[in-house]
Amino acid sequence: MVEQEVIREKLKYLAEYIDDLEQDITISLDDFLNDKKIRRYIERTLHMAIECCLDIGSHIISCEKLREPESNKDIFNVLAENNYIPPKSLTQLGKMAQFRNLIVHSYTKIDPEIVYTILKRNIKDLKQFAGHMHKRFLES
Question: What is the largest CA-CA distance in the chain?
């Protein structure tokens, strides 16, 4: 059985990271590209937000004894297969998992313009994931 407290704690951190990212969402591309500290802060905050989503997914998969995911990206497939998230979320969440792998394993090859695009366009995907998890596990 999924532990509500684990979900609640991870969603609390995810909400904090999303709030932090939304504070920087108005930054211009020039300012973003010219400020190494801001770039690194946003990259790291995105990384932690994505990790929260992956941790929540892994917790659900483990507790519910669902099929073992083959990769981080597959965590979201397993959740969709079992109706924990809508299938229409898969493409964007899968890209987030791939971006997480890039940050962790190929951090010297990160294209700042891609990070900027994620900041501008994809924070909503993290919010939607959080909403699905909150509705499913914390609203009774």
Answer: 48
Give the orientation angle of helix 90-105 with respect to helix 112-121, to 10 degrees: 150
User: Tokens standing for 85?
Assistant: 């998230």
Please state, in angstroms and as integers, the Cα–Cα distance from residue 64 to each residue in 51, 111, 115, following that order.
20, 37, 34
Distances (CA, A) of 59 to 33, 65, 130: 36, 10, 14
The reported pTM is: 0.96
User: Which pLDDT tens digit goes with each residue over 112-132?
Assistant: 999 999 999 999 999 999 999
Residue 114 CA from chain centroid, whole number: 15
Please report the domains of the chain, with CATH numbers, ordered by start residue.
4-138 (1.20.120.580)
Query: Closest Cα to residue 115, out of 17, 41, 53?
Result: 41
